[in-house]
């Protein structure tokens, strides 16, 4: 069987700051996985807030298409928080989640944040693996935090990644 050159080419993705007109695309991606998907309007409201920022990922050279993944984050005082992160099912395990999280970490370093927090369902093996790989540590628990399929409650781990563990001298 002959395979074209394109089959072997490693896919490249670009990460761009979130635009205010992308709320519908974010809601569509979010709806692929979450039991209580956030609506277009909820994303639009969040994105209006000065403290909220985020990034989308697209395949290089296909800038006009729908985003393949996004991350939404917030910075208050000197702490960052991941509000949500999602990658389209067909594009997982290609490094997009990591690229998006790296973009948030870079932004927070630039803003001199001290740490980045998030909550993750203890049953979400993919997200837990990604966050552990990025240096997040479990620092707390929120019992029954998530509503899962069938109305079951799922526990959340609270995770933290320190950004300036060495203090101001290392900035
Ligand atoms: C979690 C999620 C964002 C990961 O995105 P992704 O683009 O597939 O992740 P990446 O390809 O960047 O993976 C980076 C690393 O994370 C870990 N990882 C990611 N998915 C994994 C999986 N399914 N199983 C085990 N490890 C996984 C691996 O260490 C991986 O590196 P590797 O592929 O070199 O082994 C994606 O699975 C998703 O959108 N899930 C549904 C929504 C969600 O759970 N969001 C998080 C809410 S807290």
How would you describe what is shown here?
- The protein is an alpha+beta fold.
- The protein has one domain (12-170): 3-Layer(aba) Sandwich (Aminopeptidase), CATH 3.40.630.
- It is built from five helices and seven strands.
- It has helices at 5-8, 23-30, 40-48, 96-110, 125-133, and strands at residues 13-17, 52-59, 69-76, 79-87, 115-121, 137-147, 153-162.
- A seven-stranded mixed sheet has the order 1-2-3-4-5-7-6, sandwiched between helices.
- A hairpin with a 5-residue loop joins strand 6 and strand 7.
- Helix 2 (23-30) packs across helix 3.
- The radius of gyration is 17 Å and the shape is globular.
- The relative contact order is 0.14.
- Mean pLDDT is 89; it is low at 1-7 and 166-171.
- The chain binds coenzyme A (COA).
């Amino acid at each position: 069987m002959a395979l074209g050159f394109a089959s072997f080419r490693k896919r490249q993705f670009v990460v761009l700051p979130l635009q205010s007109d992308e709320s519908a695309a974010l809601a569509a991606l979010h709806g692929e996985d979450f039991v209580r998907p956030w609506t277009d309007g909820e994303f639009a409201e969040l994105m209006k807030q000065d403290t909220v920022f985020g990034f989308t990922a697209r395949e290089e050279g296909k800038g006009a298409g729908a985003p393949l993944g996004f991350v939404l984050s917030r910075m208050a005082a000197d702490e960052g928080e991941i509000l949500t992160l999602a990658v389209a099912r067909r594009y997982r395990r290609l490094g997009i989640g990591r690229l998006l999280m790296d973009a948030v970490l870079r932004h927070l370093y630039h803003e001199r944040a001290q740490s980045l927090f998030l909550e993750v369902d203890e049953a979400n093996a993919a997200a837990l693996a990604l966050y552990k790989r990025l240096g997040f540590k479990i620092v707390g628990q929120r019992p029954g935090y998530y509503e899962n399929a069938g109305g079951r409650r799922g526990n959340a781990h609270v995770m933290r990644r320190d950004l300036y563990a060495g203090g101001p001298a290392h900035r």
